[in-house]
């Protein structure tokens, strides 16, 4: 596992709720009389630029791309259909799913994708839930495509086929 202070320019990272990003710069700034170091990230796809304090990167959920073992565990999570159906109101469920997406954990994002995909097969999702499902799917597709060095369309097809009715 890469220590969060060891990302270098040119490396790829995952940043919570934004997905795969390239480390495009390192910078030291004087803030309140202290020298603080920052990563400059550029999110793939959107081009969004994010500046992350190096000493807070791990706390913020910045992490290396998932390796083969983590990807295998993610697919186990997606295949697990023996999950209790959520009886919460849609807005409470939405908040819980948002918290999972904000962690940046591949496995928590996979749980959101699985749970919403299963729920969608039973009822119509609210607009917010549909957006959350799309977000979770996009985050998984983006990371898996880069980690496996394959196309996003191949990964999307693989994920979608797991929840076809």
From TrEMBL:
Any Pfam family the entry gives: CarD_C
A GO BP entry: rRNA transcription
Domain of life assignment: Bacteria
Residue ranges crossing the lipid bilayer per the database entry: none
Record domain CarD-like/TRCF RNAP-interacting: where: 6-117
Name used for this protein in its record: RNA polymerase-binding transcription factor CarD
Species: Enhygromyxa salina
Gene name tied to this protein: carD_2
């Amino acid at each position: 596992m890469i220590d969060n202070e060891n990302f270098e320019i040119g490396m790829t990272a995952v940043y919570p709720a934004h997905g795969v990003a390239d480390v495009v710069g390192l910078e030291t700034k004087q803030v309140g009389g202290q020298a603080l170091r920052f990563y400059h990230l550029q999110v793939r796809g959107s081009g969004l630029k994010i500046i992350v304090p190096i000493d807070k990167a791990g706390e913020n959920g910045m992490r290396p791309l998932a390796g083969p073992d983590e990807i295998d565990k993610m697919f186990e999570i997606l295949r697990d259909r023996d999950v209790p159906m959520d009886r919460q109101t849609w807005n409470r469920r939405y908040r819980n799913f948002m918290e999972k997406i904000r962690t940046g954990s591949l496995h928590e994002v996979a749980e959101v994708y699985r749970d919403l995909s299963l729920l969608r097969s039973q009822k119509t999702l609210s607009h917010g839930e549909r957006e959350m499902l799309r977000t979770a799917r996009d985050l998984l597709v983006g990371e898996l495509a880069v980690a496996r060095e394959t196309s996003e369309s191949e990964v999307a097809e693989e994920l979608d086929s797991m929840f076809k009715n």
